[in-house]
Amino acid sequence: MSASALRLPTLRRRHTVLAGFGLALGFTLLYLSLIVLIPLSATFFKAATMGWSDFWAAVTSPRVVASYRLTFGASFLAALVNAVFGTLVAWVLVRYSFPGRRVVDALVDLPFALPTAVAGITLAAIYSGNGWIGQLFEPYGIKIAFTPVGVLVALIFIGLPFVVRMVQPVLQELEPELEEAAATLGATRLQTFARVIFPTILPALLTGFALAFARAIGEYGSVIFIAGNIPLVSEITPLLIITKLEQYDYAGATAIAVVMLVISFILLLIINLLQWWTRRRRGAA
Amino acid sequence: MSAVLSIPVPVPSVAGARGNQESPVIRWILIGLALGFLTLFLFVPLGAVFHEALKKGLAVYWRAITDPDALSAIRLTLLTAAIAVPLNLVFGVAAAWAIAKFEFPGKSILTTLIDLPFSVSPVIAGLVFVLLFGAQGWFGPWLQAHDIRIIFAVPGIVLATVFVTFPFVARELIPLMQAQGAEEEEAAVVLGASGWQTFWRVTLPNIKWGLLYGVILCNARAMGEFGAVSVVSGHIRGATNTMPLQVEILYNEYSFVAAFAVASLLALLALLTLVVKAIVETRFQGIQESE
Q1: Chain-wide mean pLDDT for chain A?
Q2: Which of B101, B121, B253, B277 to mutate to test binding with chain A, by most A CBs within 10 Å of its CB?
């Protein structure tokens, strides 16, 4: 609050002194419209040319509904796994020193940097029955690649950095005095975590969870190689859009895309609210 | 803003031993669990890319990456990035200049809209351009009449790549330039510098690390994009296959070693990206601490 009050005078002066506002904003809006807004609106216009009943039939056919169930279910589970292990990884990276910590820290971003197709074929190779990890599960009759579990594995990979990178800075800023005070007052280490540390990192944790979930529902490249893509069993929604396109069913593909876009926009709104909450918490701390 | 004004409190990254440390046993169990998780999902996949690529020896590897189709895929990937990255770089600087240095209504909506491509599935990013420029699309008939190909051709690949990499530079620069404020630029203008002089001599040196950071991330995504490009490419060998698409084709043909050989080049690019990112981050922290 006081920060923005302090800055107001300089803000007013900016209008009069600095140049290039019209050019910069004009170019930004033009480029944004040409590359993002107009193309995205094409999906809604295309869907509007379908009748409501056609649209409804396209987005609720059994094969499509099965794909929603897999996409959203696996994305939710993957985000959940990443919430737990992401917090653990962030904790270990911030609090403990061990050999190779800096390398591990840098490698956490690998899923952001590694092309999804590369991740896809690699995960399929190592989690298949004769792969490095798959063969450990094969004797127990557990198949990972080419089943819905494979989809889960790919989505865990793709969402791994989000929770770590959201929680890490909050843990770093956590003042040790708070924990010391809790310990002095007789709290056990677990109580301190549950009552002091966890509430502080919760907004960041939820933001990371939502980001990982949002990324996972749209993910394509890393999933299709490991999923097996069996209709009604292991076929994700983005793949169905491509399948419809390949059959020249543009209306059907667009209808599914509109459903996914609407869900993505709602998630984006939720993420913005969560980030605002995170900032407020961190600002207040 | 509060981060700028508050007095920096030195926070030790490894907390002291007064009641806020776990016992060594718990500590090593937690480290073991975290590293075990990362091993299953990060380290083993990374190692596997290179293992699979080099399984049949260096000669086979070399033949796979110097195959004419692979070389043409590498060329197309480099070309696409060479167009998409500068476009989004110019956009990112313009957007950050407008948003960080000026006040105007609707600013937070604009910032959200810039991030929009991140929340759109890559497949949908490809689909929108098919709906616009495909044979049945809005501009399809006009394009056909003038014999211009966008979908199943290089322009479509570039467009889809520009879309998915759209926010990278802007989202690195906006918070950075907001934190820096406009005082230095204002001083330059008062001392008689022109608008461009102010930008080149004052703003650019201040944002160069953030800019580099955004460009690296943008480039990694541009070269590695798969879903969006896959929709618009048409998979024409030697013509519209980028490296990730070439990986897919080889893999689906059961040419696993060749697929992993091309994939290993992309994995090297990813590792290089992470190294440069780590270096830039260290520089960043150095600058922030010295201020």
Answers
A1: 89
A2: B121
Mean residue pLDDT across chain B: 88
Q: What is the pTM of this model?
A: 0.89
- Over residues B143-162, the mean pLDDT reads 92
Mutate: best of B27, B39, B41, partner A, most A CBs <10 A: B41
What's the pLDDT score for residue A203? 92
Task: Give the pLDDT of residue A5.
Answer: 42
Q: pLDDT above 70 covers what percent of chain A?
A: 93
- What are the chain A neighbours of B49 within 8 Å (beta carbons)? 118, 122
**A119: which chain B residues are within 8 Å (Cβ-Cβ)?**
45
**Which pair of structure tokens corresponds to residue A217?**
């529902």
Q: Tell me the Ramachandran region of residue B178: left when phi exceeds 0, alpha when psi lies from -120 to 50, beta otherwise.
A: alpha
Closest CB from A113, A217, A238 relative to B220 = A113
Residue A19 confidence class, pLDDT cut points 50, 70, 90:
confident
Instruction: DSSP letter for A145, please.
Output: T
Q: What is the pLDDT of residues A93-140, one digit of tens each?
A: 999 999 999 999 999 999 999 999 999 999 999 999 889 999 999 889
Alpha-carbon gap: A24 to the closest alpha carbon of chain B (Å): 5
| Stretch 217-276 of chain A: residues touching chain B, C-beta under 8 Å | 217-221, 225, 238-239, 241-242, 245, 248, 250, 253-254, 257, 260-261, 264-265, 267-268, 271-272
Q: Which of B9, B251, B271 sits opposite A225 (nearest CB)?
A: B251
Nearest to A117 among B120, B189, B226 (CB): B226
The tokens of B90 are what? 């110019």
d(CA A223, CA B221): 17
Counting residues of chain A whose pLDDT is more than 90, the rounded percentage is: 69
Subunit contact A238:B226, Cβ cutoff 8 A = no
Higher pLDDT pick, B268 / B138? B268
Name the residue facing A133 among B2, B40, B103 (closest C-beta). Answer: B40
* Cβ separation A35–B138 shorter than 8 A: no
Interval A60-106: pLDDT, tens: 999 999 999 999 999 999 999 999 999 999 999 999 999 999 999 99
A204 contacts A167 by C-beta, under 8 angstroms:
yes
Picking from A219, A182, A183, the residue whose alpha carbon sits closest to that of residue A78 is: A219
Instruction: Give the distance from residue A272's alpha carbon to the nearest chain B alpha carbon, in angstroms.
Output: 8
ipTM exceeding 0.90, yes/no: no
